[in-house]
Amino acid sequence: MLFVGLHFVKNAGYTILAGLSILLGGLYLLHHASAARHDIVATGLLADMIITFPIAYYFLLIRPLRLRKRSLLLVFSCCCGAAYLLLPPHQRQYILQLRKLTFVLELGIIIYASTQISKIRRYYQALQTQMPDSAHHLRQSLIHVLGNSLPVKLLAAELTVVRFGLLCWKRPTNLPSNAQYFTTHRNSGYAALFGVFLFVGIIELVAVHLVVLQYSYKAAIVLSFISVYGIMFIISDFSAILKSPVIILDNQLLLRTGIRWRAQTEIQNIKAIRQVKEYEQSYSVCFKGGVIKSSANLLITFNQPVCIERLYHKSIMSHSIMMSIDQPAEFISQVHAAVGN
Question: Which of 4, 169, 286, 290 has a 20 to 30 A CA-CA distance from 194?
Answer without folding.
Answer: 286
